[in-house]
Structures are given as structure tokens and as C-alpha cells.
Design brief:
Blueprint lengths: L7 E2 L2 H10 L2 E7 L9 E7 L1 E3 L7 E7 L12 E13 L12 E15 L2 H15 L12 H8 L2 E16 L6 H12 L4 H13 L8
Helix pairs in contact: 4-5
Amino acid sequence: MFIPKVFAMSNLATMQQFIEEFSFGILVSDGASHVTENTLQASHLPFLLKPEEGEQGSLYSHCARANPQWKVLDKANVLITFSGPHSYISPSWYQARPAVPTWNYAAVHVYGCVELTDKEQSLKAMRALVKKYEPDLLDNQDVVPKLFVDKLLAGIVGFKIKIKKVEGVQKLGQQRSASDQLGVFHGLSGSGSFDSLALAEYMSKSNLGVGNLK
């Protein structure tokens, strides 16, 4: 990923927190061994980060057994992309002129090697994922009975990714003057776009690209 130095996420803990917050990623792998022509395969999947496993952590996920991508994953090197808020930035929000439009965003790329997991490991990872988003559901036998879970497990393939490299970017206009940064923040905050509002909230929370707002 092209990352100008001023926009780089340099701290592993910061990038891990980003993955925790924006955990629905895109898994990209080489599909050449499974298809008739050289190509890439990609799946949109939820991921669970275990930061304590290995030097840079491990990711767990699963896909439908009907998804052919899993057949080329074991021992494969893959890329997983995690995207945060992003939005169009109008040059009219800057105090400095002339200026041109741009697009601000945040993203993290993870590179690693895949290992398929057995039924017990896959179930453990799935339960951890549910616990993160809806812990009360784990013990609700009316909604998710054990027999139903066992049946569904046969239809998925779980896997673990040992992380080899993590890189992140936060392009939030932090290279511009404080007044320009604040103008962007107010422009995004005044927009009716969900993406723009989400990016403004991210800027405020990360304290980047918001000038002297705090």
C-alpha cells in the first residue's frame, strides 16, 4: 500500500485497535490453482483479532463451504484489507486557495499465512465473535439451539491467519494548516452524508486532522 510518511499509522497497537473497530474485511488470495485462468479471489468476511498470538497477532474468520476460495487458502499467503470511514473533501472547505478536491480515508492492510482450523477451533472462534457483538445470544437456546449450530458448522470452513505484516494509513488532511483542517471537519460535520459524518467523528476521536478542535 502506498503510504506517504505524514499519513502513516506507525503504532501496532493503533492498527490493532483499528482492526477491532472495523473488523469486516476483504480477504484477497491467489486463485490460480483453483480456476482455469490466473486471477485473484476476494471475500468480504468478519474477522476476530487475537493480538496476543504471535508477534503481531492472529486473525480468525470463516466462510461458507460453498465459497470456492477456501480450497486455495491452506498455507496460502493472503492480504486482508480493513477500511474505516472515508469521504469526498471539497476544496471550498479550505481557507488556503487555490485547492483541489480530494478523498480522505483510513485503512489497514494485513499480510499473513492461512491455516485451516478444525471444528472445535472454528466453533471457539465463532463464539468469540458472537460474544464481541451480542454476548447474550450465546446462551439463548431459543434463538440459536445447539443442534442448529452443529448443523451450520458443517456448512462453513474456519481458518486462522498468522499475521506477518501490518500497515496502516490515515489520510485526514493533517498536512494542512489548522484552519484548513478545521474547515474540513466542519464541512464533513455539516453534511447529510453518513460517510462524511462518520469521517468527522473518526477525526475527532483520533484527534487527527482537526486542527485546534480539542
